[in-house]
Amino acid sequence: MRSYLRTVTLDVQGDTTDDEDASASTRNVDVNAGDYIVALRPAVEGEKADKPMPRVWKVTSRNRTTVTARLEDMPHIKPVERTIGVSKILANLGPDPVPGNVYGTDLTARYMGRKKIDDDVTLHIFTKPTRENLESLLSGFRNVVRKRLEKLKITGILNENVVYEIRPKKGKAVGYCYISGNPDNPHRIVYCPEALKHYTAPHLIAHEFGHLIEWKLREYRSLWAAWQVIHTHTVYPDYVTSEDSKHLLSSCIAVRDEHAKADVPAKGATPTIRAWRASLEDEDKPKAAAILRWLHQHRRVRPHDIETLLNLGKDDLIKKLWPSERIETKHSIKPLLTEYATESMSETFAEALALSFCGKKLPDTVQKLLDKTLTTLREAYATEGR
User: Fold this and answer.
1) Parallel, antiparallel, or unpaired: how do β-strands 162-166 and 122-125 relate?
2) What is the pLDDT of residues 234-255, one digit of tens each?
């Protein structure tokens, strides 16, 4: 994996005066290598002058009046070291600070080191996961995501400008994929170990990885548009048209007639209704569910009542009961993939990839488009020689 880390070597002199040294001595600041401190970021010649803000630093060495410290903003991406006068230290948090906020700086996540996943990927750690959670994440990446990428022959995406992190959960999100708009900065995929209470490690890893692949997908407009259509099907139609209703009623009656000709034995309370719904295309199934729900809400007719009328040949009565106008279904359609996949086209693709990587069966329309997408990426990486 190409390295996008850079070490900034700076020769910055301590900016303290004799009076400040005396003040520091009077304050008896006790700072040791390995301590985390809060201090203003010293200005450096040639750097853009920003308003000084308190930052968290990790002390690497010290002498009587100064310390050398590493800025903790993004030490795994752009390590920055400065020499800071002891008198400029606002707080010494010790070697193992308690998570929280101090001087407006967030200590919830701090860099704790790295763990090599394989030859291409290193995991940067900003929280202390349990051994079980860490092993689950590593195993999920090695045994599911990497193996699937190898089978698909698109491991080249691992060599993109990207770093992998684990951080504590913040807000509702259980993982993130930050796409960098600056080619000098890497993309970042972040996993939250707390999410393993609700998701399997392979699903969590594959989902966020899906966002990285989805970013590449934007280069292929026809595929991108096709996924937009799939997303539309996960949320919409937000209504069933009168034409849809007529078509679905005809198909329901046709299933009844086929069963009668074949003398199919009845099983259960509503065999025709169940067989009808099973015979529908994926995009029509939520429409059928919406119609049955509408019949119950507006006609006080349940599926087994429709079943009885079908068996008695009361097609004209069913047509009178059946909705003839457009009916709203936006808030009642069952998602094509998962509830979360309805959030956006991005989440639709990421969920489709995650479910597929984890061996789950996808609707035919989604699986075909996913296969086409991954084939296109494989051909692109083969052309690039990666």
Assistant:
1) parallel
2) 665 567 889 999 999 999 999 9
